[in-house]
Design goal:
Layout (H helix, E strand, L loop, with lengths): L1 H6 L4 H13 L3 H14 L4 H13 L3 H14 L4 H13 L3 H14 L4 H15 L6 H14 L3
Length: 151
């Protein structure tokens, strides 16, 4: 793999694979630096960015991962595939609010996109599933009650 990268330094796929080999062998810094270099060389390649974000999440570098997700989402607001992936990555970061915001942003950018509405509904449903005792109707009643509560 290293030989392929040496001969073809622009081969992003080989860099991603080698980074995962480093990651699996506990060489986290090597994996991150390899992918950071690949991102710098090809900032539009979402596969490289996705791999780096996954490794950042595995290292609990959630702030950096979320920042990258937001940047990529702003660069390509109409990319539905990336929007879907961004939502999943934000959920992996434990950022449910961010995932919902990303889904809502997709709907606002392209309101006629049925899949984007599906993503929004699925993301909200995942969030609501954390409160199974209340159920969706109970959450709505609870929100209404809290909205009427004077601060």
């Amino acid at each position: 793999m290293r030989e392929i990268i040496r001969r073809h330094p622009d081969n992003s796929g080989a860099r991603i694979q080698l980074a995962w080999v480093h990651e699996l062998h506990g060489q986290r810094d090597k994996a991150r630096s390899l992918l950071e270099e690949a991102c710098a060389n090809d900032p539009q390649n979402k596969q490289v960015s996705d791999a780096l974000i996954q490794i950042l999440i595995r290292h609990s570098c959630f702030a950096q991962a979320k920042s990258m997700i937001r940047e990529l989402s702003e660069q390509a607001p109409r990319d539905v595939n990336w929007r879907d992936r961004a939502i999943r990555l934000l959920l992996d970061c434990g950022d449910e609010e961010g995932a919902v915001a990303a889904a809502r942003a997709g709907v606002s950018v392209y309101p006629r996109g049925a899949y984007l509405w599906f993503l929004l509904g699925a993301t909200l449903n995942k969030r609501a599933s954390k409160f199974p005792a209340l159920g969706p109707d109970g959450l709505l009643r609870r929100r209404r009650r809290l909205a009427r509560h004077p601060l």
